[in-house]
Amino acid sequence: MFFLVLGSDQRATGWNSNHRNKKSNIITINDIEIILALAYHPKRGTIVTADFDQGFRKPEMVKRRLCVVMSPPIQARVGLCTIVPLSTSVPDPTQGYHYRLDVPFPLPEPWGNIPRWVKGDMICAVGLYRLDLLRLGKDLNGKRIYQMGKLSDTHMKAISNCVLYGLGLPPLT
Known about the structure:
Layout (H helix, E strand, L loop, with lengths): L4 E3 L10 E3 L5 E4 L2 E6 L9 E5 L12 E6 L10 E8 L10 E4 L14 E4 L4 E4 L3 E3 L1 E4 L5 E3 L6 H14 L7
């Protein structure tokens, strides 16, 4: 298998038989898989999609889902981003590492604006190739429009406390 990493706004050109897998950042061109990656680290508090389809097994995350970016860009960790996954399933029972998040900006389909639950016990560092921004559509010139909203400091503090709780550490006050 051959992997070529491109920025998410770049397109492979000059190839025949292009096929985009709708569930991931993989384009198949003449039986070659190309992974479309983010070209930069998203800002802390950004909601992104993460592809957990490859290389993970239950009880780990195993599908594409929304996540919150927890880390700022760190020079010593080029190409890595720390994220916390979100779920639509209400936890039973709710634990200290869960947080109900009503996203304060519109999410595109198929995600929709329904309550999400932070899974603070499932924090992980992933390669930027697993992440994608939320696409809202295209402008009049055909250029992609992305959801660039960030969660508030209040939300981020609550999510950080969930992560600490999930690590068995006392939350910050």
